[in-house]
Structures are given as C-alpha cells and as structure tokens.
Design brief:
152 residues; mainly alpha
Amino acid sequence: MSEEKYTAEQLERMADQLLAGDSAPTGDTKHEDRPAPQDKPGKGVLDEKTLASLPAAALVYLFALDPGVLTRLLTNRATIFLGGISASFFLIHQDVIRITYMLLDRLGLTLEQSKPILFFACGAASVALSVIYERLEAAVKRRIHGRALNNA
C-alpha cells in the first residue's frame, strides 16, 4: 500500500470537500469548475445527517465526562417507568393520533391551529392509556397464571 503525500493546498481542498458534504473527497485539484462549498444549497457542516447525530454525540460526550451521569440518567424512576410502558405506548399512540385527527376533522379545526396543545395532549393520553393497558395486562396474567397453578 503506497502512502500518498498531499500539499497544503490539496489538504485544504479536501477539508472543504468534507465540509461541503462530499463523502469521499480527493486531493485532486483539477476540478476547479466545482462550485465552492458555500454554493451548494443544503450541504455543509449542519446538514440533516449531522443534526440527526447530535443527540448521540451528546450522549457519548456526557458518558466520556462522567460515566455516572449516563447511569443515573438510565436508572432513575422516570426512565424505568417509561421503559416499562414503552411497548404498550408504541401500540397505543398511533390510535390516539388517528382519533385526534378524526376529532379535529369533526370540529373543523386544522392541525396548524392547535399543534403544540395536541402534541402534549396526545402524549399525555398515550401515557395514561399505556398505564391502564399495562395494569389490565398484569391483572389478566395473574389471573391466568393463578388458574394454571390451581389446575396443575
């Protein structure tokens, strides 16, 4: 494998290509007809992929600073509670959103008029219904398990 050596100009060009969103920049300076990075709309340092990875980068950074921070975050009561109802929340929230859209349509409202309120209302309703579902499911499981033990 040969080791390539680049001039300062080529390295600078490669850095510009990376910042412009090129996936595989080259040190080739023959492409002077290429637009400058700032001329490419929608590309650059803060494109969609970069913004999507920022939360993950923040978690890695927090974990690197103090491993106890992540442990405390993932083992607090609220996180454990949300993890316990996550499966039922996943099943229920879609129906809550559909019902909300139907209600909006019947009331003659648009989504834009009430978006922030609906976000929290749908979330609260989904959490409440998930808790009810989890409790009913646990009661049915206990009952079925109790009958199975009595019949054994």
